[in-house]
Write a structure and sequence with these properties.
- This protein is of the alpha/beta class and 543 residues long.
- The protein folds into three domains: 194 residues, 3-Layer(aba) Sandwich (Rossmann fold); 194 residues, Rossmann fold, CATH 3.40.50; 95 residues, GMP Synthetase, Chain A, domain 3 (2-Layer Sandwich).
- The chain has a nine-stranded mixed β-sheet, with helices on both faces.
- Helix 6 packs across helix 7, helix 7 crosses helix 12 and helix 14 packs antiparallel against helix 15.
- The protein is globular, with a radius of gyration of 25 Å.
Length: 543
């Protein structure tokens, strides 16, 4: 079975949201292409209310399948008056289900119901001051119940609502524009700012007000509910077929493997591939841990020669990711054929991946017209046609949510706290052409970074810590002689979900130990620099 990877991704996204039972009474988030749409869904799940993200183009019938207690309309990069602006069925506003529009969602409501949206003379990006006014109402808005009449909020928009739709009143202003509006009789609420980001003061309370005061939702969603519903959905999807899982030993793919194994049992075989671009000694150590500690059925495949051959002469990071993605699929297909040749083995129709939402939103527009930042080997880096259908049970989750699911599944702490490691491995931390000598240099430097972070008691307190080998040489002095050596960059960041990240202010003595050890112990390196850029504007990885 050869299917389009893009088509599979779209279908997978719809299935992920649709697997939960309607009686959970959750909230549907309609995606207009906002980079942080899933953050809205996550904030809702944090209140133990189920949420599902659907494309803004979803039909009324698709939305009704969820029997939602409420609907949220996300932000997005477009202007509602543009010819190609994303739209959803206007009948959504007549379902009698409570609505909350956020940013573009507020503008779409206004535009659709007869109000006026215009390009702003002065855009609003970043912090602003909200004055809750509730004009034209006898009592305070349910959305703003219990919060002060003055709030610091976070904006990101270039259009403003100029004229309200009939039946609506403004409930809040900044010094520049209408910031919130509502038609309480129809239970349609909207805010121009982003309640889902931490920068908005009392944003969680506003969202809670919508969920529990307006929608009357019930907090029924939990990790246990996710595990139960996901395993049920996987059983239904796979039938009597078999599956393989691309297992890396990181928390994402390991949680995915354990989750799918609950659904399929012995019909799942895990494949751990040595691409030649793993961390130092990682192939052997990870295989031992997966087999001995987790008792998973894992096949180890040393494919380092073929991966490095594919990357010979390649310097472009997007091309690296795509070649690595294609080669992973080729290896999985070959291993699947070997397995199917066995007498007691059935047809392998599925490939399990530990894809997370940050991978999806940066790689492809699955649920809405969001921008592509970079491809990931397991999402946008997949070849157009692959011989498996995909099972990606974690596709709508963030890393910290996956860790909580892993804890519920009983995974050991050493797995749950393991730092993220990119699928392409050191290929995106070694800038320029990939060669064996440079890989060995990077592995040695990277091992020192991790060792010193652990030694300082910081490993479980930071998100990622790693080394990057730069295609830069600089003059140095060692042993009274001139050197012209390589440069290593050290990157340590803190984050909650990988969508945003900040660089860690490491103690000077830790940086000194890392630098001294790398220069003294890693041949050819004469300079170490520390990366102090945050995400955005940078990404966590260098490529």
């Amino acid at each position: 079975m050869m299917e389009s990877a893009a088509k599979q991704a779209t279908e997978q996204a719809r299935e992920q949201g649709g697997r939960m039972k309607a009686e959970l009474g959750g909230v549907v988030v309609l995606d207009f292409g906002g980079q942080y749409t899933q953050l809205i869904a996550r904030r809702i799940r944090e209140q133990q209310v189920f949420s599902a993200v659907l494309p803004c183009t979803s039909s009324i019938e698709e939305i009704r399948k969820f029997a939602p207690a409420g609907i949220v309309l996300s932000g997005g990069p477009s202007s509602v008056y543009d010819p190609q602006a994303p739209k959803c069925d206007p009948k959504v506003l007549a379902l009698g289900i409570p609505i909350l529009g956020i940013c573009y969602g507020m503008q779409w409501i206004t535009h659709t119901l007869g109000g006026k949206v215009e390009k702003a003379a002065r855009r609003e990006y970043g912090r602003a001051h909200l004055k809750v006014e509730c004009q034209g109402q006898a009592q305070k808005s349910a959305l703003f119940s219990g919060v002060p009449e003055s709030l610091r909020i976070w904006n990101s928009h270039g259009d403003h609502v100029r004229t309200l739709p009939p039946g609506f009143c403004a409930t809040g202003h900044t010094d520049n524009a209408i910031a919130s509006l509502e038609d309480a009789a129809r239970k349609i609420y909207a805010v121009q700012f982003h309640v889902e980001v931490n920068h908005t003061e009392r944003g969680t309370e506003l969202l809670r007000n919508f969920l529990f005061r307006v929608c009357m939702a019930e907090p029924k969603w939990s990790g246990a509910a996710f595990i139960e519903e996901t395993t049920d959905a996987i059983r239904e999807k796979v039938g009597n077929k078999w599956a393989i899982c691309g297992l890396s030993g990181g928390v994402d793919s390991t949680v995915a493997a354990v989750l799918v194994q609950r659904a399929m049992g012995a019909r799942l075989t895990n494949i751990f591939v040595n691409t030649g671009m793993l961390r130092k000694n990682e192939f052997e150590q990870t295989l031992e841990m997966l087999r001995d500690r987790l008792k998973l059925h894992v096949i180890g495949v040393d494919a380092s020669d073929r991966f490095l051959a594919q990357l010979k002469g390649v310097t472009d990071p997007e091309e690296k990711r795509k070649r690595i993605g294609r080669e992973f699929i080729a290896v999985f297909a070959e291993e699947a054929q070997k397995l199917q040749a066995g007498e007691a083995h059935g047809e392998i129709g599925f490939l399990v991946q530990g894809t997370l939402y940050p991978d999806v939103i940066e790689s492809v527009s699955v649920k809405g017209p969001s921008a592509t930042i970079k491809t990931h080997h397991n999402v946008g880096g997949l070849p157009e046609k692959i011989p498996f259908a995909l099972i990606e049970p974690l596709r709508d989750l963030f890393k910290d949510e996956v860790r909580r699911i892993g804890k519920d599944l009983g995974l050991p702490q050493e797995i749950l706290v393991k730092h993220p490691f990119p699928g392409p491995g050191l290929a995106v931390r070694l800038l320029g052409e990939i060669t064996r000598p440079h890989l060995a240099t990077l592995q040695d430097a990277d091992a020192i970074v991790v060792e010193e972070i652990r030694r300082a008691g910081l490993y479980e307190r930071v998100w990622q810590a790693f080394a990057v080998l730069l295609p830069v040489r600089s003059v140095g002095v060692m042993g009274d002689g001139r050197t012209y050596g390589l440069t290593v960059a050290v990157r340590v960041v803190e984050s909650d979900d990988a969508m945003t990240a900040d660089w860690v202010r490491l103690p000077g003595e830790v940086l000194e130990r890392i630098s001294t050890r790398i220069v003294n112990e890693v041949a050819g390196v004469t300079r170490v620099v520390y990366d102090i850029s945050s995400k955005p504007p940078s990404t966590i990885e260098w490529e």
